[in-house]
Amino acid sequence: MFASDTYRARRNALAEAVGDGLIVLFSNDEAPMNYRGNVYPYWQDGSVRYYGGPNQPGFALVLDASTGAATLYGNDVSMEDIVWTGPVPSVADLAAQGGIGRTAPLAELAGALKAAQASGRVVHFLPPYRPNHFAQLAALGIDAAEAKERASLDLIHAVVAQRERKSAEEVAEIEDALGVTSKAFEAAMQATRPGIKEYEVGGVAEGIVLAHGRRLAYGLICSVRGETLHNVSYDNTMRDGDLLLMDLGATSPKGYASDLTRTWPVSGRFSPIQRDLYDAVYAANRAVVAAIRPGVRYFDLHLLAARTMVERLVDLGLMKGRVDDAVAQGAHALFFPHGLGHQMGLDVHDMEGLGEDHVGYDEDLPRSTQFGTAYLRMAKPLVAGHVVTVEPGLYLIPALIDQWQAGGRFREFVAYDALEPLRGLGGIRIEHDVLVTDDGARVLGPHLAETADEIEALVGTDA
Ligand SMILES: [Mn+2]
């Protein structure tokens, strides 16, 4: 954990922003895989960690917004627990690590919250997403069906405003995670060769993460079918001529995420058209990074990425017509059907559990309903301290091409005939994690091969 003063300062700022009432943050309980004693690897809620709660199940952190006083509710372990899981710090020790002044048994939580409600105080809580959150809210008389809608908007907005501005020590954590992530990518590129399975490369990458005592921040994507955006199978045999797309993030010691994507040729050499398309994606990535600074709307960066790629696609004869018109009408989404990126921090899609629109949008900019741009998770103006991903991509999705072509969709912008020979090309994405600074941007982490030449130099060699 960080120094306890860090958490005390964060809680004081939160209490001040919310103003009155009680704020309750529920920890995540263990999540059973198939029965109670066989659990998924433990993952604590990001806000609980951010405000100084322990990285363990079975706690609730209550903050009195009027006084700033914090109480950690939890139970000390029994001898039986110690026999099976070993000694763990006491609740008092865990509270002290987070600078939390008071502890109480978990059994007293519902009573304390109900007493506050009875005396007319508001109990602020974040949107629940785990079964134990719903159960704890049910004890306050809040039905599961309405629990999400009854989450406190004041609390959500205050948490987002705080967590989205990363401190120097948080940025250092993200860069630490990126260091391990880069090593995983380099090992994966070097392990790639025709004739082996995707999981052989994915396993090398994941092994590097584990061998550094870290975990994946989200499910690995490692596929020659990169056009399936969240492809989580790794069974394909990689062939000469395939492009392998890998999207992997690791955690830092204090739980911060990284999120990188690279795409490389299985053979070690891009074909001419693969290189042209790779360069188009890379140009979009560079244009966006160069344009990042406080005050710029991320929405406009998304459109900049789209325009940059469409310009190249027009040059390559795969699209036609006026670039601005094609992007305004959404024709680029045939190739780029997702958003440019998202905020990143303790959660890889930072705070997505609080509601994407609360994190990525403001009242001046409603979410687009246009196919493709509707998936944009971040749109609002950037401020110094934001950490965002920049991850433009180009994909050949045969089913989508067929549907649009059959419907005559955007015939004025898409050269459908020219796409025929490219149907099996897959997907290309290049992703960086970027800090918004006072006057621009800083790409975080060590340099990892990113130009087509750098990628070719690394793949399948012992560099
Ligand atoms: Mn990402």
Gist of the model:
This protein is an alpha+beta fold and 463 residues long.
Structure description:
With about 475 residues, this protein is an alpha+beta fold. It has 2 domains: about 5-165, Creatinase/prolidase N-terminal domain (Creatine Amidinohydrolase, Chain A, domain 1, 3-Layer(aba) Sandwich), CATH 3.40.350.10; about 170-460, Creatinase/methionine aminopeptidase superfamily (Creatine Amidinohydrolase), CATH 3.90.230.10. It is built from 17 helices and 15 strands. A 5-stranded mixed sheet has the order 6-5-4-1-7. Strand 14 and strand 15 (about 440-445) form a beta hairpin. The longest helix has 24 residues, at about 170-190. The two termini are about 35 Å apart. The structure holds manganese (II) ion (MN). The site of manganese (II) ion has 5 residues, from loops. Manganese (II) ion binds near residues 259, 341, 389, 391 and 431.
Coarse structural class: alpha+beta
CATH class membership of the largest domain: Alpha Beta
Please compute the radius of gyration using only Cα atoms.
24 Å
Number of strands: 15
Which overall shape is indicated by the principal axes computed on the Cα atoms? globular
> Main sheet, how many strands, which sense, barrel?
5 strands, mixed
Mean pLDDT: 96
Q: Strands of the largest sheet, in order across it?
A: 6-5-4-1-7
User: What separation lies between the terminal Cα atoms?
Assistant: 36 Å
- Unreliable stretches: none
Q: Into how many domains do the coordinates divide?
A: 2
CATH fold-type name of the largest domain: Creatine Amidinohydrolase
**Strand content bin:** 5-15%
Q: What small ligands are held by the chains?
A: manganese (II) ion
CATH homology-level superfamily of the largest domain: Creatinase/methionine aminopeptidase superfamily
Helix content: 25-40%
Total count of helical runs of at least 4 residues: 17
> What would CATH call the architecture of the largest domain?
Alpha-Beta Complex
